[in-house]
Amino acid sequence: xxxxxxxxxxxxxxxxxxxxxxxxxxxxxxxxxxxxxxxxxxxxxxxxxxxxxxxxxxxxxxxxxxxxxxxxxxxxxxxxxxxxxxxxxxxxxxxxxxxxxxxxxxxxxxxxxxxxxxxxxxxxxxxxxxxxxxxxxxxxxxxxxxxxxxxxxxxxxxxxxxxxxxxxxxxxxxxxxxxxxxxxxxxxxxxxxxxxxxxxxxxxxxxxxxxxxxxxxxxxxxxxxxxxxxxxxxxxxxxxxxxxxxxxxxxxxxxxxxx
Length: 259
Ligand code: NDP
Description:
By secondary structure, this protein is α/β, with parallel strands linked by helices. It has helices spanning about 15-25, 50-55, 70-85, 110-140, 175-195, 225-240; strands at about 10, 35-40, 60-65, 90-95, 155, 200-205, 250.
């Protein structure tokens, strides 16, 4: 299996759940990244305490405020990341931040549909647009013609809940706004893969499994996977991705999920 050699990465929603787990696991790698841009919307808040503690011990973690629904915040974050990187590029953009509301189909509202689409779908679109120059730079700076996560990649944290073919978990949670936002995120991932392949950037939609986080547990059921198991699996998947995988929808074990 190929190894992940990521010099720089950015994770959105890095203060808790899967995002925090990703930061922790990248730190533990035999070759940890030189720069881990851990972004969250309220770095000084109570919910970022664990990330702050981690950053105080690891100078390669740079905490950056980022609200993924706010284009101004995204642009400011991209400028800050660019400053830190000097002349080099960003290898890995992980669009992890996301929200869900436990609505039934009949109780969905315009506001909830809009809020969830803006966060889960438009956020990753704007993030990729803003960080594209840095991702391109990373791709240009890496030798070889193939695609890989060590070179330059966008990982969109999707969900099997957005799979039109599987309708996973419908009996437990209808969450139509969430499902629609992730189905659209899958399409976005495919579009990004088509547009960015020529720039040397790999793009995938990744389902982390059903994971023990605030979101995973919000409907009152105990998810089967720990954050550690999910993240460990996803990093193994990321290390194995190549040109043939760009534009696919995979789960934390590397299985292809039907759209
Ligand atoms: P959590 O609810 O535990 O964490 C969500 C993270 O996203 C938090 O850091 C939160 O920040 C951040 N966030 C939410 N909205 C915004 C915003 N507008 N701007 C910036 N950050 C924001 O979720 P998980 O860790 O479980 O989920 C991570 C990703 O994995 C999501 O995209 C989710 O859809 C996906 N996923 C999760 C599954 C699971 O079982 N857990 C299953 C399938 C997919 P804050 O602390 O400020 O609220």
